[in-house]
Structure formats: structure tokens, C-alpha cells
């Protein structure tokens, strides 16, 4: 499964499910389910996450803004 | 007797596989320390995202024979992945990178997340990011079985 980050209607990033697991694990108190409003993601090939709706720590981690 | 090579150096088979003219389009190339001008690695694409300098920032989990090509900065800041950066692929909005990509677009397609790939390009250390290891610029990325 691939996670796709959308900003201004463009895909600006894609992550494997395994890497998303590692990223949210690094962020204390963040759950993977908080990245998407999708109720059932287990059957999907990809999940769309929207940059504008993400809390700063998650957006920063995905886009390496803090590095 | 055939010369021996450190695994981070180019092998004779790798020499000549890389398009060194791509370096003409790397902005501020002095930020990258070249370890090997041409290197081929195998691994799985874990992520890719566009950057303001027009590059893609791709994370690749290397196959075990290539695991010595990552360092502590890759472990700390890139989840243990090698960074792979094709240049001048996307729209450039970073001011100091605009001239390097002017009138140049690298026509390279990036396989989907999870693809097992063979990547060829210059093996460098990024001095601006704790010396993490990268393939940058990238001559080719091909999907393999």
C-alpha cells in the first residue's frame, strides 16, 4: 500500500506503508490513523493524505522540514 | 591480477555507465563530496517526494550486498535508507537552484513505491546534511524482477 501526499492538487510525495509506520513511530503520540480520514484503509492500494490537513509535526516529518 | 576495489569505489564495469554531464546541472555541487563517480546499487524504493530544487528525494532500502553504502547519518535521518536524487525533474522554485536547471529537464521515470530497482549514478556524501550517503545525480533507475 502506498501513501500519497497531496498539496494544491498535486502529488508531492509517496511513502510505503512500512516507512509510514517508522515515521509515525518516531513521532510520539501520533497514530497512523490520524493521517487519513479513510475509515477502512486495509483494502486499498493507496491512501491519499492532504498536506493542509496534517498537523505540523507530521507534515514536517514527511517532508523532512526539520532535518 | 585484477585490481581490487573498495566496495564504495567504482568497479571497472561501472565506469562509463554514468552521464557525467549531469553534474553541469547540480546546483552548488561543492555541497556534495564525491566518493565514487559511478556506482550501481540494487534496492527497493520506500518513498519519493518532490523538492523545491527540482530534484526527487527518493529513499531506497538497499539489498544486503550494498548495505555498507549507508552511514550513521542515513541511519539517523533517513530510516536507514540510501538517498537517491534525480535532478531537474520537477518544477524548480528554490532561487539558488533555478539557473542549474535552466533549459534542462532530466527525462527519467521513477518506478512505483515498492519496486526493486537498479540505480546508477554518482555515489556522494551530502555535506549539508550530516554527510548522509546519496546517489546524486542519477543516470538511470530501472525496475528489475
Question: Could you explain the architecture of this structure?
Answer:
The complex is a heterodimer of chains A (67) and B (145). Chain A has helices at residues 17-26, 56-62; strands at 2-7, 10-16, 46-50. Chain A is α+β, with helices and mostly antiparallel strands and 67 residues long. Chain A has one domain. In chain A, strand 1 (2-7) and strand 2 form a beta hairpin. Chain B is mainly beta and 145 residues long. Chain B has a single domain (20-143), classed as OB fold (Dihydrolipoamide Acetyltransferase, E2P) (Beta Barrel), CATH 2.40.50. Chain B is built from two helices and five strands; from the N terminus they run ββαβαββ. A five-stranded mixed barrel of chain B has the order 1-2-3-5-4. In chain B, a hairpin with a 5-residue loop joins strand 4 and strand 5. Mean pLDDT of chain B is 92; it is low at 1-5. At the A-B interface, strand 2 and helix 1 of A face strand 1 of B.
Which secondary structure elements does this structure contain, and how are they paired or packed?
The complex is a heterodimer of chains A (67) and B (145).
Chain A: E1 2-7, E2 10-16, H1 17-26, E3 46-50, H2 56-62
Chain B: E1 32-50, E2 56-62, H1 72-77, E3 82-84, H2 98-101, E4 116-126, E5 132-143
Parallel strand pairs in B: 3-5
Antiparallel strand pairs in B: 1-2, 1-4, 2-3, 4-5
Amino acid at each position: 500500500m502506498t501513501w500519497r501526499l497531496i498539496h494544491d492538487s498535486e502529488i508531492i510525495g509517496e511513502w510505503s506503508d512500512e516507512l509510514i509506520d517508522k515515521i509515525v513511530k518516531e513521532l510520539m503520540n501520533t497514530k497512523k490513523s490520524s493521517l487519513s480520514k479513510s475509515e477502512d484503509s486495509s483494502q486499498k492500494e493507496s491512501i491519499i493524505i492532504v498536506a493542509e490537513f496534517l498537523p505540523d509535526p507530521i507534515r514536517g516529518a514527511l517532508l523532512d522540514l526539520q532535518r | 591480477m585484477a585490481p581490487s576495489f573498495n566496495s564504495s569505489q567504482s568497479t571497472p564495469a561501472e565506469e562509463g555507465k554514468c552521464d557525467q554531464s549531469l553534474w553541469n546541472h547540480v546546483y552548488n555541487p561543492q555541497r556534495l563530496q564525491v566518493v565514487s563517480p559511478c556506482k550501481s546499487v540494487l534496492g527497493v524504493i520506500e518513498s519519493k517526494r518532490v523538492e523545491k530544487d527540482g530534484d526527487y528525494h527518493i529513499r531506497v532500502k538497499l539489498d544486503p550486498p550494498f548495505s555498507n553504502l549507508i552511514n550513521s547519518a542515513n541511519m539517523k535521518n533517513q530510516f536507514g535508507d540510501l538517498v537517491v536524487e534525480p535532478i531537474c525533474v520537477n518544477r524548480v522554485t528554490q532561487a539558488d537552484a533555478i539557473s542549474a536547471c535552466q533549459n534542462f529537464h532530466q527525462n527519467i521515470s521513477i518506478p512505483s513505491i515498492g519496486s526493486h530497482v537498479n540505480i546508477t549514478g554518482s555515489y556522494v556524501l551530502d555535506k549539508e546534511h550530516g554527510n548522509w550517503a546519496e546517489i546524486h545525480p542519477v543516470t538511470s533507475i530501472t525496475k528489475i524482477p
